[in-house]
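hiii so my PI (J.) wants the whole complex modelled not just the main chain, which honestly fair. so below is everything: two entries, each one labled with what it is. i double checked the lines twice but i was tired so who knows lol
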Amino acid sequence: MNLTIDGRQVAAEPGTTILQAAKAAGIDIPTLCHHDTLDESSSCRLCVVEVEGRRDPVTACDTAAADGLVVNTQTEELRAIRQLNLELLLSDHMSYCTPPCRDACPTHIKIPDFLDRIGERDYEGGMRVLRQDLPFPGILGRVCPRPCEGPCRRQLVEDPITICQLHRFMADQTRQAEQTGELLLPHEIKPESGKRIAIVGGGPAGLAAAFYARLEGHAVKIFEAMPHPGGMLRYGIPSYRLPRDIIAEELNILWRMGVELQTGVRLGVDFQLDDLRAEYDAVFLALGAFNANAMGCPGEDADGVVTAVDFLGDLELNGTVACGKKVTVIGGGFTAMDACRTAVRLGAAEVTCLYRRSRKEMPAHHTEVDEAEEEGVRFALQVAPVRVLTDDAGKVHGIEMIRMEMGAPDASGRRRPVRQEGSEFVVACDQVISAIGQFPQLAGAGEAEGLAHTRWRTLAVDDWTLQTADPKVFAGGDAVLGAQTVIQAVAQGKKAAWSMTAFLRGDDMPAVSKQLHDLRRTPFLEALKAKGDIDKNVRRMAEVPPVFIDINTGVLEVSPPAQMPKLWPEDRKTNFAQIELGFPEDEAVRGAQLCLQCTCEAHGDCELQRQGIEYEVFANRFQGAEARDYEPYDDQPLIAYDPKRCILCGKCVGVCREVQVTEAINFTQRGFEAKVAGSYDHALDTSFCRFCGQCVDMCPTGALTNRQLTRVKSWDRKKVRTTCPFCGVGCNFDLNVADGKVVGVTAAYDAPVNQGSLCVKGRFHTDLIDSPDRITHPMIKRDGVWERATWDEALGLVAERLLAIKAESGPDSIGVLSSARCTNEENYLLQRLTRAGLNTNSIDHCART
Amino acid sequence: MAGLAATLGSGAMTNSISEIEGDDVLLIIGSNATEAHPIIGNKMKRAAVRGAKLIVIDPRRTELAEYAHLWLQLKPGTDNALTNALLHVIISNDWHAKEYIEERCEGFDDLWETVKDYTPERSAEITGVPADLICRAAELYAKTPKAGIFYTLGITEHTVGTANVMNLANLGMVTGHIGVENAGVNPMRGQNNVQGSCDMGALPNSLPGYPSVNDEAARARFSEAYGVPLPEKMGLRIPEMLDMAVYGKLKAMYIMGEDPALTDADANHVRKALESLDFLVTQNIFMTETSKYADVFLPAALYAEKEGTFTNTERRVQRVRKAVEPPGECRPDWQIIIDLSERLGHHMPFSSPQEVFEEVRRVIPNFAGITYDRLENEGGLQWPCPSEDHPGTKYLHKGVFTRGKGLLQGIPFEPPAELCDEEYPTLLTTGRMLYHYNISTRISASLEMLRPHELAEVSPGDAARLGFADGEMIRVSSRRGSITTRIRVTDKVPTGTIFMTFHFKESPVNELTNSAGDPVTQTAEFKVCAVRMEKVEQPVTI
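here's the output for the full assembly
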């Protein structure tokens, strides 16, 4: 029988379907509800194909292949139908694959995970999760521009989760206990590697690098130019946002981990890069960006003109700084807001912020701008400085500004402001503070030292490994990025620590760079699979961007996010007291519980996800449609069932009924209310279900998952085919191995005896392999007490005693029991030992039936 | 297995698991496959759903009994009376395969001589199965060409175990159901590698590949292969070893991977034997009950930590592959044995399981065609597989029996060794349960969670009479011991019978069982003993 599929001649056996014929010919037709062992339900309707001579498309899974049939599987119309069907399936699939917040975070904090811990009031556990990616939640929880909150899916129904404040809350809850008690590290510090790392710069990048490098077991020393560590955290951010005791306490964790610190030493002045090269195995340059950009207008050298970097830095260094009565601040970023609000607190009667674009384009977080305004700061927007006006003594008395209007977009996509000639005006003031950007100070790290610079006055590094032209020297943070945010600096520090670890263990760094470059360019789902071959920390440096499918939230009741209480403007504008007061516990827990938990155990393994990406369901016309809201069945540790993720494909029901002949689960209700459930809608238990786990194999989504396996992501599991060690049927399955441990079992559908079916023992027994009850060394009983022995002692004693008994009482005074649980080879060897070594036939095992 | 070896010439499942779904009639006797062999149980249920007729012969209303066309609820230990009646009905109705018998079998007259007295009515009195049901079962089985017999320990763990098996072979031969596809006589082996242990010669009476230790030519062949003369005297079977230990004749035991103190019948007797030994070595993965009596404990690797092969119940040799390193100093059993053998003065020249298997291929003709390479490329292979171009054997005895002529023998019914009386009025029968496998699965927290304790099955009638409630603890005593167990009241068991598993050391059922053995194999009568059930006044927690 011959038919034509996509223009190819395909031979098919009578009785096969179009889907089977296509599959046999290597032509992939998408389906979510078909399995070779089951009757067809054609419920997903993804396998629609066009058959010449038929008016409408047909489902390939239940249409018989016939001689002469001409079939097309890939047409624009079919693609549109499949996309529509996927949108319909996804409109009632209340689970998100991977969290957008985590992708948006530069250091990719496991946000849903720590919010979940807060929801369960497990703050210590939450801290350990968080510190996998961010060492300093107390600091970042106060100063982070929170890029994570931008894409929060909660915004589809409400305001975003206050992620940033919630991780500060977690730090607040644990800080006292941690200062004197156990450090809440993501894992124990690894054994000493014997390698030494020098870090130049004690700002967020250098401090984060120190934390992660120390966790890997390296000896780490930080060299800091200023009198105290912290960099811009201390010398750039005012204490009303970030109290200094918080910095000291969080950094204290580093010193307790064994990180060394030397302050008051400046690269290129007090020591040279060569000194570090000689003494250390790797060097990380985290020099920061402490040089202020010039305004580039006449008069900026005048008395009364100061950069925000100096204004804020001097205040921190000296405890006081000269501040005018009428102050103008040029710029719209975080530093500009810090300067404005500091001037308010130092007693300035009038503070005006001058910025060349509109308010919503200000780089500072909108809450900062709002708070500055509440404190009396005035804003003059879309204006630029022309010149500084001075009196005869050279002292500032005003600044001439010009109005700007928005022109064509520039390279960054933002519209470029252009001068509106003739619109000049004067703002009277006695102090001008400029806050229009910073750049790195690279003294001691120049070409003379063997390093290259970029045309943006930053250090040149490999994009993927942060390695400089000198293989031993790495660089990151503002020195590489230019002045950026604290969280970006932390991300670079973490990445540098992992990169240096790879370098120090001898990885080929150009090859690593190439590997990361390639991984980043691999399509998302293939990239997930490819990850398994790369070291966990190294592959995360590639930062593979996920693909987000448009999926409903399933939220039926809206509820506002938790908002942290803060000081009233009148109470805060005269002092440097911390503004944000912290959460009451119940409010934080409520806020964290609002998280939609946009994560799924099946991520990367999910057929629905794969087809959603393949058919580009990135905007769903059924967004916001009515959804079913079900609670997960959460009461046994083997099979997890979350009906919200179920797309009613029916494969689990089919395999339970047709293959296992058990009927533990079936469809309940009808129409939109239809749901797969156990008898009487009870959770799965042994009264009906036999825990064969085959329904999990069938599930094309994450509705049914094997809890043993979901502890480790699929790409981190290696599979080893073997034969079941229990009854005599001889089922085959794949042991799943991760980090040298068996983590669970997956079925082998090509197994000759069981064709993928397993019983509860084959499926779930593997926790006995790693049991703490295993005896792991030979033992000899002396005077009735077991004592540990070497193999040599134990086997020596066995041989000696058996030979003695044989000599004394004859070979038949010894009996040997072999085992029906051991291998053929072992049984063979033991009978040979018995007959040829002991000279008796007295060998037996416990079944002769 | 001894039963089939004697009658057919080969002691193994005659047909393959994949044939089950093609059978039109399945005669399932003494097998609770959905619990003990779940994947085979599934295939049987699938066959039933498809329209095959199941004849289930079991005292308990097992899951398969629910799917049965005919359920013959016999009294425990009366299997032969029932089989004889089936044979009687078949032959007296002239439903037997006369040409097949003439051509391929011997001893038919001897058989008829015995079974001619077992009328359905007489057997009904012994077995409790109505005569009418016996006749219908006999007709259905005899008249259906694709009819297979399936049995397990329910047949063999009796004092008449071997006789039971021989009689099932009689049934298969008389109806011409052996040596054809989708039929046969199929023992489903209990443990993962029972078949392999027997094939490899871990038996006191036969060498690898089943030549008798008395077979001089075979012994000479193996003596040459091993470079030392091999002993001729038949070895001791397990119960004999234990008896000899108690008598002081057996001084030392080396026990690999077994736990007779928990799994063998009459545990008190076993413990006494182990205590009597001068020297006991146990080689295992856990500290077992038996290990408590040992002088040396050798820590072994388990299946996921080593290479090798298992042979399943349908003679299929399949690979076991190493997935992880053994913990601590644990070593694979094969390494331990080779090392010990060296110290005993017998050098074994192997450095891997594959090299051992190469010797197995050389010394066992039926394995000659199986190689690790083939197992890698083709999956499992079923012996006999005499050459590398042989595809393996799906079903045995095609055309001719391995033995030559199939041996038909009359097997008179003998009652179980222990019968109920006034003092011990209840029959105890034992078996396995889905969630555990022997004793080791209790180490798995996942499986232990599903079934943490024994749930002995007691009929509603007995429960009402003795005042037991579902889920309550009761005391069960036999002539040999006394234990407590939690019970489930269920009509799966008939009144007068209690069912227990042997997985739980807190309810060690083998304290109660009878070690009276089969005269051929010495397999103990795990399936039938007389007990007394009593209420426990003080609640006992386990």
